């Protein structure tokens, strides 16, 4: 059951990544509207499907490697620019310490609805046909450490150096903020966002292909899985907005983590580890709560 939930989560998360891709892709053009963003998203879906069906996993992986390299280079530049801006604001004693705008239960459910934005480290788990277990474990650990460092630094630099404006909240609001730091950053940020969402979408596409093949014991090929994923992704693109898709994906991943934690709790109990049993049980309950009560940003 957990594998089925994860498969659904992958499908929705790819839709989330590529809908962000579409939004950023048209953000600095005269075609900056939902229709053209969806058209761009749909085009990338079809590109991934064509590449996956005609060239297979290796071609998709190569596309992802190029996108990840570009993304990390731009992120490094972005963090440097934000650090300089943070230092300047701090030197002028103008750091912002605004009070939280969403607190209590509403804040917790909102945070639960955003879990998909910080997940994805299990993707290489389902690439066993290409990489050995040791390599996949190292990749997941390295990804978690690197992304955690980037997220924490980015949040600190952004939260205290800029005024928060809830009225300007949308999927590309960060572009206007970066204009304050340096005129070149909005363009670089769009490029980084495009490469980030593209690489993440391909990673989850590859992961879903491996997952479907593993769960079906070869009855569903990776190429057929790509077709299914793209079909559902296109449906979500044209029937739901980005914040709804984020919420759907977050709920699915939370439920998957809950099921995995429950399995771990049962095994720990059978092995006679009461502390681990308690920990995994609490994590399972937390996952269920997130799946049940997580809310979209809107």
Q: What distinguishing features does this structure have?
A:
10 helices; mainly alpha; 2 domains; single chain; 298 residues
Number of domains: 2
Q: Count the E strands.
A: 0
Q: How many helices does DSSP assign?
A: 10
| Beta fraction | under 5%
Mean pLDDT: 79
Helix content: over 70%
Q: Per the principal axes of the C-alpha atoms, what is the gross shape?
A: globular
Give the distance, in angstroms, between the N- and C-terminal Cα atoms. Answer: 30 Å
N-to-C SSE string, H for helix and E for strand: HHHHHHHHHH
The main sheet comes to: none
Which consecutive residue ranges, at least 5 long each, have pLDDT under 50?
A: none
How is the quaternary structure best described? single chain
User: What structural class results from the helix and strand content?
Assistant: mainly alpha
The rounded Rg comes to 20 Å
